[in-house]
From TrEMBL:
<feature type="site" description="Interacts with tRNA">
    <location>
        <position position="89"/>
    </location>
</feature>
<comment type="function">
    <text>Catalyzes the synthesis of 5,6-dihydrouridine (D), a modified base found in the D-loop of most tRNAs, via the reduction of the C5-C6 double bond in target uridines. Specifically modifies U20 and U20a in tRNAs.</text>
</comment>
<feature type="site" description="Interacts with tRNA">
    <location>
        <position position="178"/>
    </location>
</feature>
<keyword id="KW-0547">Nucleotide-binding</keyword>
<keyword id="KW-0819">tRNA processing</keyword>
<protein>
    <recommendedName>
        <fullName>tRNA-dihydrouridine(20/20a) synthase</fullName>
        <ecNumber>1.3.1.91</ecNumber>
    </recommendedName>
</protein>
<dbReference type="InterPro" id="IPR013785">
    <property type="entry name" value="Aldolase_TIM"/>
</dbReference>
<dbReference type="GO" id="GO:0102264">
    <property type="term" value="F:tRNA-dihydrouridine20 synthase activity"/>
</dbReference>
<feature type="site" description="Interacts with tRNA; defines subfamily-specific binding signature">
    <location>
        <position position="294"/>
    </location>
</feature>
<feature type="active site" description="Proton donor">
    <location>
        <position position="92"/>
    </location>
</feature>
<dbReference type="InterPro" id="IPR035587">
    <property type="entry name" value="DUS-like_FMN-bd"/>
</dbReference>
<feature type="binding site">
    <location>
        <begin position="225"/>
        <end position="226"/>
    </location>
    <ligand>
        <name>FMN</name>
    </ligand>
</feature>
<dbReference type="GO" id="GO:0050660">
    <property type="term" value="F:flavin adenine dinucleotide binding"/>
</dbReference>
<dbReference type="Pfam" id="PF01207">
    <property type="entry name" value="Dus"/>
</dbReference>
<dbReference type="GO" id="GO:0102266">
    <property type="term" value="F:tRNA-dihydrouridine20a synthase activity"/>
</dbReference>
<feature type="binding site">
    <location>
        <position position="163"/>
    </location>
    <ligand>
        <name>FMN</name>
    </ligand>
</feature>
<dbReference type="GO" id="GO:0000049">
    <property type="term" value="F:tRNA binding"/>
</dbReference>
Amino acid sequence: MNRKFSVAPMLDWTDRHERFFLRLISQHTLLYTEMITTGALIHGDRSRHLDFNYEEHPVAIQLGGSDPVDLAECAKMSEDHGYDEINLNVGCPSNRVQSGMFGACLMAKPKLVAECVAAMQDVVDIPVTVKHRIGIDENETVEELFEFVEVVAKSGCKSFIVHARKAWLNGLSPKQNRDIPPLRYDVVHLLKQTMPELEIIINGGICDLDTAENQLKYIDGIMMGREVYHNPYILAEVDQRFYQSETPVLSRQQIMELMFPYVEKELAKGLRLHTMTRHILGLYNGLPGAKKWRRFLSENATKREAGIDVLYKSLECLG
């Protein structure tokens, strides 16, 4: 599994429609699902949570949970469904996640995380990875971070995705936790230097490919999140710059033309147009007519009767 460049799991954003769209722009970027809780998979609509398009590969699923037995069951489901990687969420700071005893609060329980990872690895052949913060609340020393990673690595986990901010579990909202705690790239770099045998992926605050490429001097891979969602065409040069691909970069128009058949197929299943078009609103960012295009889609794609003609007509806004 090549994790040199990946797009972060983002709740309510990285669904299968978003992932299909991003795959049209980059063939090699590793894509992640939204976080899916073990309870949702075990007791809910499994198909709704697990289904994805074959074209999305390579694609990883992120699980949220803290019970080794439940996580093992969900990991096996995920592998059987065709995912390329299982990722355990040890980074989400929301109150709802804390009450369910998973997410960032698990950084205080490295032995439990290790048990969870081991349980999943026992039942699947695909990689199991962990995404976490550099610390939580007052627990932010380098020694505590290293201890967490060391304990979890002993369970067999070889790949860690590190959001280079601590998380405040009390006092800050999830949104504030993405911005207010300062970025500490140096801590993630030191983690890699100290444990060179591990694959260390850095996440947090990276907004352009030059910065991302520079990070590869210190760590093994980059994960970008919100910047990709709001400015998806940033992925257009990822295959050439990070994977030495010789495939030509597609234009925005070519990407839209590839989206039309997908949208028509999903509309035929009864999905609303807005379900898909909400993810593509940033495609023309910075170009003439982009604001008019976004407004047209936002106002018209949400209508119950909206069909593929709305998407075709929206392109007229771009001149």
